[in-house]
Amino acid sequence: MLPSRVPDPLPPLGQTLYLPSEAHQRDFGAGLSALSRGSVLFLEGELGTGKTTLTQGLLAALGFEGLVSSPTYALMQLYPTPQGQVLHVDAYRVRHPQELWEMDLEMLSAEARLSILEWGEHFYADFPEAPILRLEHVRQGQTGRILTRLR
Ligand SMILES: Nc1ncnc2c1ncn2[C@@H]1O[C@H](COP(=O)(O)OP(=O)(O)O)[C@@H](O)[C@H]1O
Ligand SMILES: [Mg+2]
Questions:
Q1: Per-residue pLDDT reduced to its tens digit, 5-35
Q2: Closest ligand 1 atom, CA of 26?
Q3: Which residue from 1, 35, 47, 119 puts its CA 20 to 30 A from 128's CA?
Q4: Rounded distance between C-alpha atoms, residue 4 and residue 25, angstroms
């Protein structure tokens, strides 16, 4: 028997997706739960573009039932899910990448079910396999968000 194919939850490189509502944003995040164990994913996008919403959708799909918030002040947050821990990092306030390495970023991300790194451009070169997703507001009073896969 052929192994069942793991669906690729990410859009092709450079492709832009329109996510018209918060529910779509959550659903997109839920789809990321198909990423393989140990995956690292970078998220960039200004305040309010739905980074936390997407992460909430992902965590719910992995079976985490608690509260999910922005880890801006904590820098990193570990969420226990039935499939393992999800690491959520917000590097916005990190001045020196060393701060996160000293918090065991390498080991934590290696052991996590999945890691989401917001504002992690200092770490793009350290995780060369990790996809980068950019979130943007839609212009001209339209609701929804735009998501582009940069890597
Ligand atoms: N695709 C979307 N369409 C409309 N509203 C959205 C969408 N995604 C998220 N939102 C809303 O935008 C607000 C900010 O989302 P949040 O996830 O906190 O953004 P961030 O973490 O990037 O600051 C929330 O009220 C959320 O419900
Ligand atoms: Mg947030």
A1: 555 789 999 889 999 999 999 999 999 999 9
A2: 8
A3: 47
A4: 27
